[in-house]
Backbone:
């Protein structure tokens, strides 16, 4: 018979069974779809925002080279120009364009106030040889085939070179003002002028459109410079588009503007189009590797993009895992809702079974319902996720800016692959959640429900629950001891710790379900309780599987939320302490262009020397910095003053220095300090030696101490500035930290310095402390949003469970009413049941959150970022969370109790 | 060969009215342009005594200088080729100077204009053209390159050693007769690369009167025009992964000046012919805007003994026959040149028919912005017999040259 049921039955089942229920309870259906959508949306929003932030990393030279075949970089600091001559001598016959590049950053000047750090657009200043650009434009245009008449290259109007030298592009205008190159034909002396003008710049169309005059005022290094807009970069859809924050300079002009004569940041190489270009590129790269022999590094635009992706990998993975947890909680809700639906429709299923509909079809009907739910939720989730990504992308972008590299990412596009994955995830999750209910529905015997059925009886938990829970907790403990997974480039991911968190959450959830009967069974004052109280509690003395599930859901949500809160709270406390101890000087000076982690704005020696010579300054720490490429990944090398750090800051030592050599510039040339992140990342400790690549040759230093630092996760090495300057041959400073005379008025000195050097950012100690905290908290904005969603979903889940339980017990409710129970009393009984369920969930959840918090602080955080934090759970916040969840649980129990009390005994939904 | 003036002036503006002192106003006279100071340049002086090998090298005191090689080659298997290799040097008319005060807002730093950095100098530009013709397949390839004086382009002042990227022309030292042996490295993109050894078969020739070659009425429009009219060429050609031998003959000009164009001139035609009988001929016709030939046009014979005899435009005629229209620039060039010149002894001479080995030998001017035709030709006598090989240059046919200049 089962095989003879026509397929129309399946359609009938859908329209008369699934779809009818959905229509009759539109709000429940909508809520379910919305919940699923929310889970999917959170996941998708984070994924899209991550993708946008990663793809926003640009190799700006692509605009000029249309992606070069490779590049030569210094392992630390800059490349000398003499390398160019060496390259041409080494490869005299090779047809290749060597493209020397200098890169810097700049921002538009502020209003003079201390202001918010990081809220202004950072421009990337790209210096390339404007004259040689012409050759690149030609090289990048494919020659015609070698048959028939050759097709020589034509001028490429879409290449930036066109904006440099083409004579007819003077039609460009900025804010209505004609550009200086808009000379009439025959007025070509202006062309010379453009190349000789040390402040000529080419700007993207977006910048040109908003300028009111052909002058662009920027803070370059620490100076305010009026640049002359000499042309507008062409915008051709077939060419790599110039990013809106790219400014193109003639290389020697930028060298002069940034006070970096003779220095290059990299040399890219571009092979002319023609046969076997990939093979030629590989051969050249091979030859270059032999020639560079460790002195220089070889890379490529794609490798640089990969590095940027690797750099942010741990951060992005953490966010993705958090977003998946939101989806997991959503799943639980779907499970609870579908399970409730099985309960409510049990009579119908039994009738269908009696009519001969085989179990397989009923199971399929549930599968289809779950799949449709997944599709609807997924589709809505795509929309919500895409919208949410626009908000999330700013959060992710700000964090990437603060910690990794400059990004101007403002929006995230809906990537088809990510969207498809999210949709598949939604459907798969919905099917997974609907699996058990579908089986329950299919197993409903025909006879069972034809007569009056009974609610699912309370039962002992299966025997495996206790040992299973203990095993999970044990496994979690084991996983927590495992080290992080090390990735290429020095990134680490705490996969085992995340696994530990998951097993602990599951274990705690299982364990929590066992608690109500254990506690209530021993309740001595049972007899003194009121009727509604006894009624409410009686269900928990022998809880159903649904009770246990609701408790587990709450445990998970509360544990995750509170666990994250413990991490954030501990971080906050640690950072405040660190900021107070570290920022003890009076004034902090940097270029006003220093707005992000990747800023290259520096302070020129004559400026910082004049400041530290001011009479109010009693001590100063002049800091220089350079990115360092070590075999294990990139890190930062600072030149500073260890004695100043000792005297003017209370450093939190992870491994304190011994002896006095470190503090004496005359004796500390072979010594260095390293941050804790560095120590974790490169597995080096006090007493270990480290080889630093410098332009004057490798320098071997011994680590004299390891200090706590929360400024970045890539790590930092600090050496005496005087040695740094000698090794790197320049004295450009990233910042100056000044201790003033006790009698000096820091605000007045700040105002005076600012007036004398408008391109400097001069911060007083309180302002900088406030900004440091603000930037830190900003990076946790996304986490906060994820937490709120987790709590909301778990409370909703509790409501669903209670509603299912009451529906199942509606016959009992009728009996209770017949026995004289009033509606209020029934609602009170439900409220008590809900409150106790919630209390157990919250209690165990909070206990689990402590374990989770420990895991996040002492394992994930240390392993991923190398930051040791003080544990400081935010008890008040956690109490607030408990009360909020309890209140919501009480209100949910009450309202569902009122609704349940009104249910007719024989009512069909 | 004044294509230098054509291409480079399109880039950097050659003043139309040069003076003897050749002091040109810099763009600092415009309010919006940066301040610059004018430079002065030397002018060719009659009777100059050249000192070699230094005078084969660069002369920075002159504004414009080029080393210009053209030739006919045969590769393995007897395939015929034409090649052109030109290295130009052009000095800036202005040199950088600090900006005048007042152009920068108060409280704004005023970075002084830095001196021209040695690796990326702004005082001299180097342009180079390479062209290669495969006569059998009628394939003409060319490439242009522009660099500023510095790490990737430079010219030695003590000897011939001029470089532009991976292209170079070097004096390797004197041979047994004291003539320089030159090495040329050049190529086209990634497709071709050649290395040639060039040895003069005839002594150096100095064209013009008393060492000065006039190009226009203005006294400044003149050059020192030094030529190796016939050099033997041996070398190798790399095409992809294959390398083969090449050999043949070439012509080389080395010209230095500070201004070449005159009022009313719109373009020019130039040719060099190497006759099979061992003589050479060079002719240029300056074309005026009314279609006439400028009086400062010249034809010159180089006899088998190296003796030079030259005449003005009243003694020779240059006529075009037929047309070839460029599909790229739209320029219409004469398809064939008919050149009637007197014999070296002054008697009326025959008309030579100069036919391109391939119609399309136009250089697109991708960098300079001014297309011109420069190509390998054969020379036929009245009976249609091939009597020599030539190179012809025709400028000002694609667009208005004056406007570009």
Residues:
């Amino acid at each position: 018979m089962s095989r003879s049921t026509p397929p129309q039955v399946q359609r009938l089942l859908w329209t008369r069974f699934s779809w009818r229920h959905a229509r009759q309870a539109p709000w429940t259906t909508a809520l379910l779809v919305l919940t699923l959508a929310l889970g999917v949306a959170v996941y998708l929003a984070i994924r899209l925002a991550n993708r946008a932030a990663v793809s926003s990393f640009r190799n700006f030279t692509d605009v000029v080279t249309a992606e070069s075949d490779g590049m030569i970089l210094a392992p630390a600091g800059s490349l000398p120009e003499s390398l160019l001559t060496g390259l041409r001598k080494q490869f005299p016959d090779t047809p290749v364009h060597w493209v020397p590049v200098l890169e810097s950053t700049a921002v538009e000047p502020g209003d003079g106030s201390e202001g918010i750090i990081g809220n202004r657009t950072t421009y990337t200043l790209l210096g390339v040889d404007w004259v040689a650009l012409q050759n690149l434009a030609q090289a990048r245009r494919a020659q015609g085939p070698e048959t028939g008449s050759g097709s020589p290259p034509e001028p490429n109007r879409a290449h930036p070179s066109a904006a440099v030298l083409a004579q007819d592009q003077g039609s460009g205008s900025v804010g209505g003002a004609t550009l200086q190159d808009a000379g009439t034909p025959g007025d070509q002396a202006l062309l010379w002028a453009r190349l000789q003008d040390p402040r000529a710049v080419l700007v993207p169309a977006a910048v040109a459109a908003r300028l009111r005059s052909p002058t662009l005022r920027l803070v370059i290094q620490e100076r305010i410079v009026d640049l002359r807009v000499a042309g507008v970069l062409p915008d051709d859809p077939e060419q790599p588009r110039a990013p809106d924050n790219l400014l193109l300079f003639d290389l020697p002009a930028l060298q002069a503007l940034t006070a970096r004569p003779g220095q290059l940041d990299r040399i890219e190489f571009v092979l002319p189009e023609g046969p076997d270009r990939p093979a030629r590129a590989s051969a050249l790269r091979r030859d270059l590797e032999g020639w560079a022999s460790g002195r220089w590094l070889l890379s490529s635009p794609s490798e640089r993009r990969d590095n940027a992706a690797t750099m942010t990998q741990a951060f992005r993975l953490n966010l993705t895992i958090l977003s998946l947890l939101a989806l997991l909680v959503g799943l639980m809700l779907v499970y609870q809702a579908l399970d409730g639906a099985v309960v409510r429709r049990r009579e119908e299923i039994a009738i269908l079974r009696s009519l001969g509909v085989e179990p397989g079809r009923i199971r399929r009907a549930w599968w289809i319902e779950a799949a449709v739910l997944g599709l609807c939720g997924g589709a809505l989730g795509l929309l919500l996720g895409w919208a949410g990504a626009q908000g999330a992308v700013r959060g992710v972008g700000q964090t990437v800016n603060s910690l990794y590299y400059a990004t101007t990412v403002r929006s995230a596009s809906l990537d088809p692959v990510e969207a498809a994955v999210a949709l598949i995830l939604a459907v798969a999750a919905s099917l997974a959640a609907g699996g058990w209910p579908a089986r329950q529905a299919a197993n409903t015997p025909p006879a069972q429900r034809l007569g009056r059925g009974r609610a699912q009886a309370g039962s002992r938990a299966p025997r495996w629950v206790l040992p299973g829970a203990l095993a999970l907790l044990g496994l979690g403990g084991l996983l927590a001891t495992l080290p992080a997974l090390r990735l290429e480039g020095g990134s680490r991911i705490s996969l085992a710790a995340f696994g530990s968190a998951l097993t602990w959450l599951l274990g705690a959830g299982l364990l929590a379900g066992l608690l109500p009967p254990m506690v209530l069974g021993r309740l001595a004052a049972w007899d003194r309780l009121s009727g509604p109280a006894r009624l409410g509690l009686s269900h928990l003395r022998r809880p159903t599987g649904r009770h246990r599930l609701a408790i587990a859901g709450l445990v998970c949500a509360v544990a995750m939320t509170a666990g994250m809160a413990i991490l954030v709270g501990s971080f906050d406390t640690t950072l405040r302490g660190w900021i107070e101890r570290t920022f003890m000087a009076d004034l902090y000076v940097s270029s006003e262009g220093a707005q992000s982690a990747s800023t290259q704005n520096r302070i020129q020696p004559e400026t910082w020397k004049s400041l530290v010579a001011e009479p109010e300054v009693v001590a100063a720490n002049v800091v220089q910095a350079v990115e360092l490429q070590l075999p294990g990944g990139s890190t930062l090398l600072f030149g500073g003053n260890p004695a100043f750090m000792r005297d003017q800051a209370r450093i939190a030592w992870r491994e304190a220095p011994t002896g006095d050599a470190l503090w004496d510039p005359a004796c500390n040339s072979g010594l260095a300090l390293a941050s804790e992140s560095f120590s974790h990342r490169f597995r080096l400790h006090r007493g270990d030696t480290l080889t630093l690549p410098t332009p004057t040759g490798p320098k071997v230093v011994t680590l004299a101490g390891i200090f706590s630092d929360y400024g970045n996760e890539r790590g930092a090495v600090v050496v005496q500035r005087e040695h740094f300057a000698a090794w790197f041959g320049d004295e450009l400073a990233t910042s100056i930290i000044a201790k003033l005379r006790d009698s000096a008025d820091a605000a007045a000195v700040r105002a005076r310095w600012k007036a004398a050097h408008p391109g400097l950012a001069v911060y007083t100690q309180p302002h900088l402390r406030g900004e440091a905290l603000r930037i830190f908290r900003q990076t946790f904005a996304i986490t906060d949003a994820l937490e709120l969603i987790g709590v909301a979903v778990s409370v909703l889940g509790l409501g669903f469970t209670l509603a299912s339980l009451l529906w199942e017990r509606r016959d009992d409710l009728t009996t209770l009413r017949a026995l004289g129970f009033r509606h209020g009393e029934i609602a009170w009984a439900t409220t008590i049941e809900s409150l106790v369920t919630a209390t157990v969930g919250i209690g165990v959840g909070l206990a689990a959150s402590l374990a989770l918090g420990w895991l996040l602080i002492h394992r994930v955080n240390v392993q991923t970022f190398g930051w040791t934090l003080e544990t400081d759970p935010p008890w008040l916040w956690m109490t607030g969370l408990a009360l909020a969840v309890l209140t919501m649980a009480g209100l949910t129990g009450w309202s569902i109790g009122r609704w349940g009390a009104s249910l007719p005994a024989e009512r069909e939904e | 060969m004044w294509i230098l003036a054509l291409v480079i002036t399109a880039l950097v503006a050659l003043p139309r009215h040069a003076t003897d002192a050749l002091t040109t106003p810099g763009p600092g006279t415009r309010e919006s342009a940066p301040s610059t100071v004018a430079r002065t340049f030397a002018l060719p002086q009659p009777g100059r005594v050249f000192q070699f090998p230094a005078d084969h090298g660069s002369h920075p005191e002159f504004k414009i200088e080029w080393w210009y090689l053209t030739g006919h080659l045969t590769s393995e298997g007897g395939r015929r080729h034409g090649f052109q290799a030109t290295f130009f040097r052009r000095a800036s008319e202005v040199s950088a100077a600090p900006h005048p005060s007042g152009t920068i807002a108060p409280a704004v730093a005023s970075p002084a204009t830095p001196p021209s950095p040695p690796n990326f100098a702004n005082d001299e530009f180097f342009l180079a053209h390479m062209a290669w013709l495969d006569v059998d397949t009628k394939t003409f390839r060319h490439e242009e390159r522009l660099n500023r004086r510095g790490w990737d382009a430079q010219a030695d002042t003590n000897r011939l050693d001029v470089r532009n990227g991976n292209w170079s022309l070097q004096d390797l030292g004197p041979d047994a007769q004291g003539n320089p042996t030159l090495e040329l490295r050049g190529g086209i993109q990634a497709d071709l690369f050649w290395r040639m050894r060039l040895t003069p078969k005839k002594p150096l020739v100095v064209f013009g009167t008393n060492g000065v070659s006039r190009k226009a009425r203005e006294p400044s429009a003149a050059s020192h025009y030094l030529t190796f009219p016939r050099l033997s060429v041996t070398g190798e050609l790399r095409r992809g992964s294959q390398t083969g031998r090449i050999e043949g003959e070439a012509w080389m000009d080395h010209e230095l000046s500070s201004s070449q164009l005159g009022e009313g001139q719109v373009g020019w035609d130039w040719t060099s012919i190497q006759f099979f009988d061992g003589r050479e001929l060079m002719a240029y016709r300056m074309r005026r805007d009314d279609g006439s030939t400028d009086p400062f046009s010249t034809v010159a014979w180089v006899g088998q003994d190296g003796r030079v005899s030259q005449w003005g435009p009243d003694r020779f005629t240059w006529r075009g026959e037929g047309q070839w229209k460029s599909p790229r620039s739209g320029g219409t060039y004469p398809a064939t040149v008919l050149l009637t010149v007197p014999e070296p002894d002054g008697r009326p001479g025959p008309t030579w028919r100069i036919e391109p080995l391939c119609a399309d030998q136009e250089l697109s001017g991708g960098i300079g912005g001014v297309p011109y035709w420069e190509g390998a030709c054969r020379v036929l006598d009245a009976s249609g017999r091939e009597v020599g090989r030539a190179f012809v240059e025709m400028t000002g046919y694609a667009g208005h040259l004056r406007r570009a200049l």
Q: What stands out?
A: The first helix of chain A runs from residue 8 to 24. Residues 467-584+779-909 of chain A form one domain. Chain A touches chain B through 74 residues (CB under 8 Å).
